[in-house]
Automatic annotation (TrEMBL):
UniProt superkingdom: Bacteria
Keyword Lyase tagged: yes
Annotated GO biological process: 'de novo' AMP biosynthetic process; 'de novo' IMP biosynthetic process
Family: Belongs to the lyase 1 family. Adenylosuccinate lyase subfamily.
Pathway: Purine metabolism; AMP biosynthesis via de novo pathway; AMP from IMP: step 2/2; Purine metabolism; IMP biosynthesis via de novo pathway; 5-amino-1-(5-phospho-D-ribosyl)imidazole-4-carboxamide from 5-amino-1-(5-phospho-D-ribosyl)imidazole-4-carboxylate: step 2/2
InterPro entries found in the cross-reference section: AdenyloSucc_lyase_C, Fumarase/histidase_N, Fumarate_lyase_CS, Fumarate_lyase_fam, Fumarate_lyase_N, L-Aspartase-like, Pur_lyase
Keywords: Lyase, Purine biosynthesis
Pfam families linked: ADSL_C (PF10397), Lyase_1 (PF00206)
Top enzyme category: lyase
GO cellular component: cytosol
Protein's UniProt name: Adenylosuccinate lyase
Catalytic activity: (2S)-2-[5-amino-1-(5-phospho-beta-D-ribosyl)imidazole-4-carboxamido]succinate = 5-amino-1-(5-phospho-beta-D-ribosyl)imidazole-4-carboxamide + fumarate; N(6)-(1,2-dicarboxyethyl)-AMP = fumarate + AMP
Length: 431
């Protein structure tokens, strides 16, 4: 992962130091389980617990000869021990250690991501309440539709992150597992009780059955969930980018006094943070295909997935952590312009209230078709001639036969469109 997009905590989790440290944690836990079953003498276990260690440079030296990273690791660890070294890696195979340690590191990464999701979730709730009645125009197909509020948009995002938290909790639990089942997963040289001890000791779940490797559909689902969260962030960021356009400018990313928007144009204030989020979400989605292709391995195992995951796991978790933190910061410091929202809403001279006029006519007994054909020509004049739709409606003798001035004034009151927001917020638990 590029340092630019990896926070320090994530870099530490996916460092080579932590890779081997978690491998050693697994190896020691295996020996503890064997000792409980009477295989390893107490004094040997104590020596392993106190002295087993490794040197990164030494592992690299050995791997240059063996071309096998786990063998290099176990031999480097053995060099730090005496006769008790014979118990290191006893009865297990490489993937027992690697997969279980990956489960441990994924759990470490997931803890950070869950905190990120909760922070964004809480901020969305707070701002949804803050801007609940900050009225603005809702747009469909990019065209003015009917009034909504900035808070209502944020409430939709809050609900989406609620779903993403639920998805991530499920997908992350599925990969926070271990397996210590030996070659081809049959427990021939080890027992399920050892596996259960190791996983419990490390705070991992136990995968019920394996083929020497954990089934990769678990990890594919996890990667798909990460990509889906990134796509939600892209959706939110795209909305902010659109609303920051000069001709709209209803919200704007915070722009520091010393910040520069363009190397050529001093006036530029660009939504660079949201553009960054949109770009990185494409990268996250790109990780889904290789993770799906990792599911199909030859027979009980091969290592075609291994090289992929050395990239995917660090990159995907680090990117999502970065994106969640950055978007939360963007939203926290976002500049919101209620006056501009109101001015834009009034831009079409009341065209956005055409449905209200239509429905009021229907309420007076007109058929939908008759009411529609009465209102639409006035909307066409307002569009084509740049006239006030509200004035055209008030001046219409035909409409005046059915609706009073007071009824028409009510039809053009934006507050009507916000009257159900409290009910929706209550559904979401935003109170």
């Amino acid at each position: 992962m590029l340092p630019r997009y990896a926070k320090a905590e994530m870099r530490q989790i996916w460092s080579m130091e932590n890779q081997y440290r978690t491998w050693l944690d697994v190896e020691i836990a295996i020996d503890e389980a064997w000792a409980k079953r009477g295989l390893i003498p107490t004094e040997d276990l104590k020596a392993i617990q106190e002295h087993a260690d490794f040197d990164l440079n030494r592992i690299q030296e050995i791997e240059a000869q063996t071309h096998h990273d786990v063998v290099a690791f176990t031999r480097a660890v053995s060099e730090t021990l005496g006769d008790e070294k014979k118990w290191i890696h006893y009865g297990v195979t490489s993937t027992d250690v690697v997969d279980t340690a990956n489960g441990l590191r994924l759990k470490q990464a997931n803890t950070i991501i869950k905190e990120d999701l909760q922070a964004l979730h809480q901020l969305l709730k707070e701002q949804a309440l803050q801007y609940k009645e900050t009225v603005m125009i809702g747009r469909t197909h990019g065209v003015h539709a009917e009034p909504t509020s900035w808070g209502f948009k944020l409430a939709r995002w809050y609900d989406e992150i609620t779903r993403q938290i639920r998805r991530f909790d499920e997908a992350s639990a599925a990969v926070e597992v271990g397996q210590i089942s030996g070659a081809v997963g049959t427990f021939a040289n080890i027992s399920p009780e050892v596996e259960e001890y190791v996983c419990h000791k490390l705070g991992l779940g136990v995968q019920p059955i394996t083929s020497q490797v954990l089934p990769r559909d678990l990890h594919a689902d996890y990667m798909a969930t990460i990509a889906l969260i990134g796509s939600s962030l892209e959706s939110f960021a795209t909305e902010i980018r659109s609303l920051q356009r000069t001709e709209i400018r209803e919200v704007q990313e915070f722009f520091d006094k010393k910040q520069k928007g363009s190397s050529a144009m001093p006036h530029k204030r660009n939504p660079i943070g949201c553009e960054n989020i949109c770009g990185l979400s494409r990268v996250l989605r790109g990780y889904v295909i290789p993770s799906y292709e990792d599911i199909a391995l030859w027979h009980e195992r091969d290592i075609s997935h291994s090289s992929v995951e050395r990239i995917l796991f660090p990159d995907a978790t680090s990117l999502l952590d970065y994106m969640l933190k950055r978007f939360t910061n963007i939203l926290r410091k976002l500049e919101v312009y209620p006056e501009r929202m109101k001015a834009n809403m009034d831009h079409t001279g009341g065209l956005i209230y055409s449905q209200r006029v239509l429905l009021k006519l229907i309420d007076q007994g007109l058929s939908r078709e008759a009411a529609y054909d009465m209102v639409q020509p006035l909307t066409a004049r307002a569009w084509d001639e740049g006239l006030s739709f509200e004035k055209l409606v008030h001046d219409s003798a035909e409409i005046g036969q059915y609706l009073t001035k007071e009824e028409l004034d009510d039809a053009f009151d934006y507050r009507y469109h916000l009257r159900r927001i409290d009910q929706v917020y209550k559904r979401l638990g935003i109170e």
